[in-house]
Predict the 3D structure of the following.
Amino acid sequence: MSATRTDARPEPAASAPATLTMAGALNAALRDAMAADDRVVVYGEDVGPLGGVFRVTDGLQSTFGEDRIWDSPLAESGIVGTAIGMAMYGMRPVVEMQFDAFSYPAFEQMVSHVAKMRNRTKGRMPLPMVVRIPCAGAIGGVEHHSDSSEAYWTATPGLTVVMPSNPADAYSMLREAIESEDPVVFMEPKSRYWAKDALELPVRTAPMDRAVVVREGADVTLLAYGPTVRTALEAADAAVAEGLSIEVVDLRSLSPFDDETVSASVRKTSRAAVIHEAAQFGGYGAEVAARVTERNFHHLAAPVLRITGFDIPYPSPKLEEFHLPTPDRVLAALATWEWDLA
Amino acid sequence: MSATRTDARPEPAASAPATLTMAGALNAALRDAMAADDRVVVYGEDVGPLGGVFRVTDGLQSTFGEDRIWDSPLAESGIVGTAIGMAMYGMRPVVEMQFDAFSYPAFEQMVSHVAKMRNRTKGRMPLPMVVRIPCAGAIGGVEHHSDSSEAYWTATPGLTVVMPSNPADAYSMLREAIESEDPVVFMEPKSRYWAKDALELPVRTAPMDRAVVVREGADVTLLAYGPTVRTALEAADAAVAEGLSIEVVDLRSLSPFDDETVSASVRKTSRAAVIHEAAQFGGYGAEVAARVTERNFHHLAAPVLRITGFDIPYPSPKLEEFHLPTPDRVLAALATWEWDLA
Amino acid sequence: MPIVHAFGKALIGGIPSFHDGAMSLSVERPDTRSLPSQKPIRLLDNAGHAVHGSATGGFDLPDPATLLDLYRRMVVARRFDVQVTALTRQGRLATYPSALGQEACEIGAISALEACDWFFPTYRDSVALLTRGIEPGDILASFRGDWHNGYDQHAHRTASQATPLATQALHAVGLSHAARLRNDPIVALTMLGDGATSEGDAHEAFNFAAVWQTPTVFIVQNNQFAISVPLSRQTRAATLADKAVGYGMPGFHVDGNDVAAMFAVTRAAIERARSGGGPTLIEGLTYRIEAHTNSDDPTRYRAARDVEHWKRRDPIERLERYLVSEGALPEDVRTEIADAAEQVAADTRQVMTAEATIDPLELFDHVYANPRAALLEQRGRLAAELAEAAASGSTPAAHAGAAR
Amino acid sequence: MPIVHAFGKALIGGIPSFHDGAMSLSVERPDTRSLPSQKPIRLLDNAGHAVHGSATGGFDLPDPATLLDLYRRMVVARRFDVQVTALTRQGRLATYPSALGQEACEIGAISALEACDWFFPTYRDSVALLTRGIEPGDILASFRGDWHNGYDQHAHRTASQATPLATQALHAVGLSHAARLRNDPIVALTMLGDGATSEGDAHEAFNFAAVWQTPTVFIVQNNQFAISVPLSRQTRAATLADKAVGYGMPGFHVDGNDVAAMFAVTRAAIERARSGGGPTLIEGLTYRIEAHTNSDDPTRYRAARDVEHWKRRDPIERLERYLVSEGALPEDVRTEIADAAEQVAADTRQVMTAEATIDPLELFDHVYANPRAALLEQRGRLAAELAEAAASGSTPAAHAGAAR
Ligand SMILES: Cc1ncc(C[n+]2csc(CCOP(=O)(O)OP(=O)(O)O)c2C)c(N)n1
Ligand SMILES: Cc1ncc(C[n+]2csc(CCOP(=O)(O)OP(=O)(O)O)c2C)c(N)n1
Ligand SMILES: [Mg+2]
Ligand SMILES: [Mg+2]
């Protein structure tokens, strides 16, 4: 009745450290997941011979053949809808939405089925599937190529939403997402695809549902994810000169939210700011600010700041620089706090 | 080139006060708007001879004919997408999505075009159109009939999102939405369709973008909208016995948010809670809590509470009572605050 | 059910793709495309006479044993449907979309499906689920409001009854494609309404199935209304089966009140799919005799005489006339079938009159494979509320009143 | 442009709806449906000879003046396209999707549209915009990254170039329906790609147009690829025009490298639409010679020889051969046209080499009709930042570096 894992292989031995981009790490994760479990199939627009518009699936079709990875017709609801059926059968489909904004035609399938199938069936029909979404902006893309869609998914109970910020996490979290019994919205910050790290594969970092303190500090906690982790780290570097010690938390998992790690950091520093590219109003930062405040109100010396894009549609390439949160803007925002109240 | 308003008529004289349901008030608003401006056209699923599954368009086709109000093919992206074209021509389409969950197929048209057209064209191509969405639950509906979709729309810059809680506002705000130069997501709480009020039509209440203090109080501000305004008012009534004086604000406009009215209330009471049916995580209440806190942190005696549905898909009819915020639950939540810290 | 079917005679020859990139303009292949017959394929006419000639579309009348079995299933389905509508009027169900009058379409199609195959139904198709062996109480749990889905999908190889229109058609395509990748010779059959064909998802499902050549059978139950909206406002195509042409897929326009035709055409499509021939689109032209659901008022949008017209085309009576004229429905068999139908009705009454016990705390148990900490906190709060309510003797109903 | 067109001879007789609720089963109307010709309609063959007989689909070759005008427009379009691709390689544009090789499809279709009509293009259709009289700088503002749309839509009756695939087709249907409700005899023409036909929105647009009988013309530019995905993975239909059958709408499969055929068929469809005859679907079979955009690498998914094959079917050369053989392209005219094309290229270079001044504060000005208080606060913050940067002499570029 369902697909069985006929071809499970042991993990390959760890490779020698090599410099990999995030796109390369994702490619390796797909390759290793497909080798380890033949229920894993990959499809979407241009993922075959082209290897994806960001080359994340580069070379996979020549290794695994067209029955494991193929180009589908151009229809996102069709891609997600058929992936649901494939997961019902027992496969583990990994499908690609070409850009955030092009996942919107799949919205109904995502919200009305992907998110709800397990609950609807009292757990009898789980949907182990991954929807990969190259996300966010800062790549000079024309309209519709730089949206941040995470708030739509995180507002939907039943979806697990994660976003790596670096190659090691990209590899590890994608493997974990594919192994998950639950559907995962796997968001890949486009502007970080070419970020490099030296990695030994297969690497496994912290569990996918945990936030990680990526830089310790004493005065303020910056909560960042995906593309803004770098922004936060740069701000932290620059702040040293100003005598400010910044702790940076990479949220990694947007839903669920790792309250434990975040609250521990915030209680230590007593100040927090969340940074994201998306517009502020109704953005994911609202949830972060609200729950950090709920859980740590009496430890907070100041309101949780939201340092985000403006409340406007994502701008054209020549204007995006004015929209996106920069390290300067982070530091300027921190400076607005009434520090003496701490 | 564009449709001209060929048939503008003076507003009808105010009628004698009559008892109207919210559905009746909405029907009257559509009728009066169609009479006042022949650019107003109404279409969607079952809005013609049937008068809509909630009877909001009852009798309009026999008055205005099939060129002004008609049944479209069954396709929500088609409905919203064609409405965009009609608005581009200069009409003022008012389209109906039958339930929140059935607006999801229109998500791409809503987010990628309705929200963005004015900005994309530097204001040269405004989209005066209204998307009516019977919303939320508590009507014993089977799956997909009780979703709360407001967080999806409020997270989208470019959309105006309003939700009346009573018949007078329903009439007034729908007239204003139709007159607006901007696209409006007009959300109608299904469980309030049969709520009655004595009204003289045409009534005009506070402007659509303003929140209204619907009950004055001294100790705490309850921020509610749509179906939860009644919940808040009932909680306020019940709280009197406990010696608690509750102020209730009907937000009315979800986007934009009326910071002025809300902050004034919160600064007076120093405590606020937001109530909604939708799940808490990533829900609209997160934005409310975050911005109220940002703007009033040093006036708050306690964190802004969120009293909401659980973080689960909307339950089946027999279980919805356990999911929805009730007056009891509101009072219980208020009791958890550390009142002595005020 | 041993079945002789008409496969091979039907006009469902392969429709190869004529495009392979660069060479399209030079292709001069024979044109094998064809339009579905505009007159619905029919094997039994309304008087219960066997049809001969081109109107059959080349399909053979199923043998008497098969027809008798189809008759039995339709009678049981009808009795069940009438019973559930009555229970709904009594307030035992939150809602029920009846298939009264559509039994030939429902039962003809579903009976052609093997137990190993998968079925992707809509809210309308409860009687098909019954025929597939699902217990009445399990079918109706969702309409009663107990939980969103009440049966074990894997055990019955039957997906939950989809409410978002046409969405399930894509699931059927995906599942059958997965099976094909595994060389598992099963077929997925999905039903959708005439209205649902207007949705983008219907288009995408037809197209994915055709391009991937999945073993999928699409049954469009054209009951001529989408709630209140008549077919003429839904499509301008001569038949809904015409849509198949645009996907390079065979399409059949079938008399949906002729269970013999529905069975024969569906069976042929299933066998074609199973043997690697790809998907088929079948339109069954029928009529919804009841309201859309109990909360609908059809007098607002259609004339009583139209309903009467279609009642005179009753699918069960049609087959009965044939069986009687062939001497294939002896009185004792008819009685036995009627008794069996009454038994199903009685069982249904019984299970739907009993209250199901539903634990509100289960609300939190199936959202994710592994419980989230924050959700467990919420579960704890509800557990405390329930405990307090139990201690103070107050009932959940108090809750309900307040919530409404 | 005075035009003799072939309307009336084409096989586009009205396709009435055969469904009107209750009576469908008894309908015995003549079957007027027909399949689009599988061989593309062609008025000029690749050697530049006029085609005769059934291959023309009953359409007449436009008169020499019209053909010369189409030639001129194609030459200018080609020169513009090549220029913009070059500028893109030089980094002057963020991206550019070239229509090289598709000029017959683009120009044939758009030239059939009157100034009073509306056009709903995609990102691919810049050359059609040029033909429609929009300035190069205004067309390219969005691809340069200045703003999402650079021209006045109302002035040119041309919607912005849609990126989300097939979405614009619904806008075209809505606008033309509105016009029809106003008895305004205009037509909306929209272009979409072969890949875009797979999207649900394409289906919904075709269906709404057919059911509402809107004056809409759908041009499917079948350039045989959707980025890297060939047509065979997009559809199994014999032709994309076949899709029209499923909507009860006329469909034409046209040689998209024959500008005469594209013009004649589109013109007939426009006139049909204008006179109340409803929508038409036209597939132009052509080929994308360039990469999808400058950031694409087509060597990964197609063979150089396929591209060569199609280069030998160049649409401009084809018409040129015909005009020359007819003596309708004197050397001085050819020179004049080439000069005009060079002038457009020069203008384009000039405008694209100059930097546009863009005020970042305009980001806040057009989101809503009336400024929101919270947005004005944000505007104020950016204004302060800019003022500070100006005062400290730092450039916005510093910003950009940090943001990336
Ligand atoms: C996406 C979506 N839009 C709207 C609805 C509301 N709705 C439920 S049934 C129905 C009519 C469906 O008609 P049809 O497809 O012909 O099926 P039938 O009910 O006649 O069996 C509508 C509009 C829905 N369930 N899903
Ligand atoms: C809804 C949507 N999904 C995906 C994309 C990304 N995308 C841009 S162009 C393209 C290929 C389109 O192919 P086709 O429709 O044939 O047009 P062509 O580019 O060949 O002119 C894709 C997948 C998009 N723009 N919109
Ligand atoms: Mg129907
Ligand atoms: Mg293409």
Observations:
- The pocket of thiamine diphosphate (ligand 2) is lined by residues A 45, 74, 98, 102, 105; D 124, 163-165, 193-196, 221, 223, 225-227, 288, 292 (CB under 6 Å).
- The mean pLDDT of chain A is 95.
- Chain A touches chain B through 49 residues (CB under 8 Å).
- Chain A has two domains: 18-199, 212-341.
